[in-house]
Amino acid sequence: MTDIIGIALLDYYNRNYSEDIFTETNISEEDELPLPYLFRTFVEMPKIEQKALKSAKGKILDVGCGAGSHSLYLQEKGFDVMAIDTSKGAIEVCKLRGVKNAENIDLLQLQGESFDTILLLMNGTGIFQNLENTSKYLQQLKSLLSPNGQILIDSSDLQYMYDSTEEGGIMVPADRYYGELEFTMRYKDMESEPFDWLYLDEKTFENICTLNNLNFEVIARGENFDYLGRITVGK
Fold first, then answer.
1. What domains can you pick out in the chain, each with its CATH number?
2. Reported pTM
3. Where are the alpha helices (DSSP H) in the chain?
């Protein structure tokens, strides 16, 4: 699969910036993802991301680190940070920007490590892909947590994307959970294969955490039906 994100990030870093990434889903029209946004500083980040970074402690794992903006901020604050991403180009950019420990590895492949904080930001639940995979990913995250560790993860409730009924409900698909989307990504003359991406509403997320003996609490809410969750191991 073409590393569209990686190619775009490298272009931007190397000052070959001429256009942005475009994303499209099965329930929405094409949307622009500006490349400068992926290189944002702390003050340019949404309040939810700022809250997550301020709540981070100890040894930190930044999952789906992208261009490394979160890792760099934490590293500058003196934290021991490991940044991982499945995009080879993204990891190259992280290293060029000064992230000391960045690895091109899938979360499910990471073994033998222990972290006090695991970050999954910019709709962190997306990497679960669908509802069915969520427990598998949560169990992997749990295996990487130190005693008293925390997972800080954000997502959005996509109810607002669907039409309402007269009774006040929403008209959701009958064949899937309404937060399961299919994305495609386009950059310059490249287009990705469709890929699955998951948005989780708070209640569904809490229920799945409970099934996996994990505690779930919302510690911040944004302005666009988004929220930041903290997950800890159940006592």
1. 4-233 (3.40.50.150)
2. 0.94
3. 4-13, 47-55, 69-76, 88-97, 134-143, 202-211
